[in-house]
Design brief:
This protein is α/β, with parallel strands linked by helices and 227 residues long. 26% of the residues lie in helices and 35% in strands. The protein is elongated and about 65 Å long. Residues 115-122 have low confidence and may be disordered.
Length: 227
């Protein structure tokens, strides 16, 4: 279990972070602060694993806080502005979340944090799919393929299908590239679920047949099938 604090002066942003933290079973929220001065005082007496830190804060900025304070935990920066990205990485932060960020992007950032208790796996084994007002946990290895359809994507497992509001490029970014491969402009497949390749079709477990796009075929057959 990892402990965390939020340093954020905007109530709507605080609420989003609180909800995301509640939905992750390996995070425990210890405190919320609206400015860096309060957080600095707290960290003098308390030990925390990770801090979600806004850059634009009253009194002193998040960047100034990082440069001046001692006993800083691992930091994930949150901001509505991309101007500070380079400077923030020079300060050795874990990740830089550009508002508004999705729950999946939040989980991706948290997965980079090194837990002192070593309870969190080195590779994320599950994802949360935003479907309507819900965040549904899905085991990554259960996914067969993901298909893009207009304004949403459909995630197919052996037992169920889920509709997501995230575009296909989102899943390309968050899923492990040693397990998932794009074989068509509209399809990503789990290469561990491949049963056979016939001409321009990939056969997956469950009887699914996925077409291979012409622009993807050469790289796919060379990298996966070594042909």
């Amino acid at each position: 279990m990892m402990t965390c604090i939020i340093v954020e002066d905007q109530p709507p942003a605080q609420r989003i972070l609180k909800k995301y933290i509640e939905d992750v079973d390996f995070l425990t929220l210890k405190a919320v602060f609206s400015d860096a001065i309060q957080a600095m005082a707290y960290l003098k007496t308390e030990t925390i694993d990770v801090m979600f830190l806004d850059i634009n804060l009253p009194k002193i900025s998040g960047i100034e806080f990082l440069k001046s304070a001692n006993n800083i935990p691992q930091v994930i920066l949150t901001t509505a502005f991309s101007d500070y990205a380079l400077e923030s990485y020079e300060l050795n932060v874990v990740d830089y979340l550009l508002k508004p960020f999705s729950f999946q992007r939040f989980v991706q950032a948290v997965s980079k944090v090194s837990s002192k208790t070593s309870e969190m796996p080195s590779e994320t084994s599950e994802i949360f799919i935003k479907s309507g007002y819900e965040h549904i946990k899905v085991i990554i290895d259960d996914i067969l393929f993901i298909e893009s359809d207009s304004d949403y994507t459909e995630i197919t497992t052996l037992n169920q299908k889920y509709l997501s509001q995230e575009p296909l490029r989102h899943w390309i970014e968050v899923l492990p590239n040693n397990k998932f491969y794009r074989i068509h402009k509209s399809h990503i497949i789990n290469i561990q679920k491949i049963e056979k390749l016939v001409s321009n079709l990939v056969y997956l477990k469950g009887g699914y047949k996925i077409p291979i796009g012409r622009t993807y075929k050469d790289a796919f057959t060379k990298n996966i099938f070594k042909i």
